[in-house]
Write a structure and sequence with these properties.
The protein is α/β, with parallel strands linked by helices. It folds into 2 domains: about 5-195, NAD(P)-binding Rossmann-like Domain (Rossmann fold); about 200-330, N-(1-d-carboxylethyl)-l-norvaline Dehydrogenase, domain 2, CATH 1.10.1040. Helices cover about 45% and strands about 15% of the residues. The protein contains 17 helices and 12 strands. It has helices at about 10-25, 35-45, 70, 85-95, 115-125, 170-175, 190-195, 200, 205-210, 210-215, 225-245, 255-260, 270-275, 290-295, 295-310, 315-330, 350-355, and strands spanning about 5-10, 25-30, 45-50, 55-60, 65, 75-80, 105, 130-135, 140-145, 150-155, 160-165, 185. It has an 8-stranded mixed sheet with strand order 5-2-1-6-7-8-11-12, sandwiched between helices. Strands 4-3-10-9 form a 4-stranded mixed sheet.
């Protein structure tokens, strides 16, 4: 299959990775649901990246297409760079075209995303012998200012990753050392899922910013966070770390994660978020119908809640935010509940075994 890679999703992250990997001499094929997007990318012939000396330049792409089978044909490595809300749909679309030996990386993946993806492949009777992995976060802080032009505001020094099950981590690390050398394959998908920070920093402050959002006040989401909003995130983080301990895992606090990702220091979430230059210019949402709630609650907080149920750990702050979010946005999807993931009644020991062996 050669040094060729397929990227599923031509949003901010997908375009950033397409341009970046092309500049690293990878032949890139890109899938997106939008015909307009793929037409523009094919006309331009690639993606221009700017804003970071490490990834500046024009990266040519081999193909952009709305045909997912065409995009993954002949490639060993498939990066799914779509928000978690679309992972189940992508698993359904990609299942008929997968072949033995391919490696799907959910990049990034909120908690239990790999479980959901694998379950959907199984439900679609996909028999291909593939490797499935996930990263805790996207490598870049980036935004596409137009189709084919991406601004990279920052690049993380390291990100955590794992395969599902984690017994294949060594294989994945060897494959990815030339793709995302910052990816550290360690632990399992439980730990990787608990390393996801979007579910912590998005829902709470967004709900507490309802006044700003609904009045049309423009604000910077991270840099304008208040001490009380930061305190709520600190409390959510305490519950996340309690879940980790119940699974026998040691995870970094959110403050320590930010120090590792962006080399910034602070005593609490408020201090690290307001001190993170990589977030400069990222505006707050203009509606409560934002991925900060529609994705990060059902596919982030609900997954944490499910892990808490499996581990027998109470999560009162997480539960309260989920309840409040569902009441103000009644059309919100159910997300990653134990029932939807096929984990209802599964014991902690059974779940750990399925993730590691």
């Amino acid at each position: 299959m050669g040094k060729m890679i397929s990227i599923i999703g031509a949003g901010n992250g997908g375009q950033a990775f397409a341009g970046y990997l092309s500049l690293q001499d990878w032949k890139v094929k890109l899938y997106d649901i939008s015909q307009e997007t793929v037409d523009i990318l094919n006309k331009k012939g690639g993606i221009h990246i700017e804003g970071s000396a490490n990834v500046e330049g024009f990266g040519e792409i081999l193909l952009a297409s709305t045909d997912i089978g065409e995009v993954i044909n002949g490639t060993k490595i498939i990066l799914v760079t779509l928000p978690s809300i679309y992972h189940k749909e992508i698993a359904r679309k990609i299942a008929p075209y997968l072949v033995d030996g391919q490696f799907i990386m959910l990049n990034p993946c909120t908690a239990l995303g790999a479980v959901e993806f694998r379950k959907e492949l199984n439900d679609c009777t996909c028999t291909a012998d593939i490797l499935l992995g996930c990263t805790s976060t996207l490598l870049f802080a980036c935004r596409a200012i137009e189709i084919g032009r991406v601004i990279v505001a920052g690049q993380k020094a390291s990100i955590t990753a794992s395969t599902y099950p984690s017994c294949n981590n060594a294989i994945a690390a060897k494959i990815f050392k030339d793709i995302i050398p910052q990816a550290q394959f360690c632990g399992d998908i439980i730990q990787i899922g608990l390393d996801n920070i979007g579910a912590l920093v998005h829902p709470g402050p967004t709900i507490l910013n309802t006044g700003r959002i609904e009045s049309g006040t423009e604000f910077e989401y991270y840099l304008d966070i208040t001490p009380t909003q930061g305190l709520l995130v600190d409390r959510l983080d305490e519950e996340r770390m309690a879940i980790a301990r119940a699974f026998g895992l040691t995870v970094k606090s959110l403050v320590d994660i930010y120090e590792a990702l962006y080399q910034i220091k602070g005593k609490n979430v408020y201090e690290v978020l307001t001190g993170c230059d990589a977030y400069n210019g990222i505006k707050g949402p203009t509606t409560l119908r934002t991925r900060y709630l529609l994705e990060d609650v059902p596919y982030g907080l609900c997954a944490f809640q499910t892990l808490g149920i499996i581990a027998g750990v109470p999560t009162p702050c997480i539960d309260a935010l989920i309840t409040l979010a569902r009441k103000i946005i009644p059309e919100m999807e159910e997300g990653r509940t134990p029932e939807n993931l096929g984990l209802e009644g599964v014991s902690k020991e059974e779940f750990i075994k399925s993730c590691r062996s």
